[in-house]
Amino acid sequence: MREQPRRMKMGTKKQWIGIALITIVVLAVVSILYIKVIHSQKYSPPTFEKNAVLGVPNPPENLSYGGVEAEGGFRFLIAGNTYQQEDGSLQIYLTNLEESNIWIRCEICDENKNVLYQSGILKPGQYVEKLEPQMEIANEAMKIEISVYGFEPETYLSRGTIYLGNTLQPW
């Protein structure tokens, strides 16, 4: 008996070509969608502090108002003692010094990284006396972290961040 030569079935080759083309099209669509999503998430800079005041404040002595300086970075003034006020606000007296060449803003979080308070951007020579709560805050002592961010004016490029551990005292 004579064996017939085996031939590859044309349908199998066509199926592989079809599967390869569909895979290429699917990958192209996924890539395009991925690129569009990434480029659609544009940076929106933080807003300026609406309660900013020009000058240097005169806070009460019990707040231990003083300066903080980052190595090779920037300098600002802030209240060292943090007391929650009866209305939930926080007197902080965050001050961007007149001789500063950067913009600053701060964020105050609890141990779980929940944002309790935040300021808008302060230009050189401005300060904000108090911050309003971003959520309901219990009237009890709690550990907080104050983050002060420095920005290049106009470009919003980072000039660094200073983290300060503290305790928010109840009123």
Describe it for me?
- By secondary structure, this protein is α+β, with helices and mostly antiparallel strands.
- 18% of the residues lie in helices and 36% in strands.
- The chain has 1 helix and 10 strands; from the N terminus they run H-E-E-E-E-E-E-E-E-E-E.
- It has one helix at 10-40; strands at residues 53-54, 65-69, 75-79, 82-83, 90-96, 103-110, 115-118, 126-131, 142-151, 158-169.
- Strands 1-8-5-3-2 form a 5-stranded antiparallel beta sheet, with no helix packed on it. Strands 4-10-9-6-7 form a 5-stranded mixed beta sheet, with no helix packed on it.
- Strand 2 and strand 3 form a beta hairpin.
- Major sheet attributes: 5 strands, antiparallel
| Spans of at least 5 consecutive residues with low confidence | none
End-to-end gap: 103 Å
Average predicted confidence as pLDDT: 88
Which shape, going by the Cα principal axes?
A: elongated
What is the CA-atom radius of gyration, in angstroms?
29 Å
Question: How many helical stretches?
Answer: 1
Count all strands and give the number: 10
**SS class:** alpha+beta
What is the string of helix and strand elements?
HEEEEEEEEEE
Instruction: Give the spatial strand order of the biggest sheet.
Output: 1-8-5-3-2
What amount of the residues lies in strands? Answer: 35-45%
Oligomer classification: single chain
Helix content: 10-25%
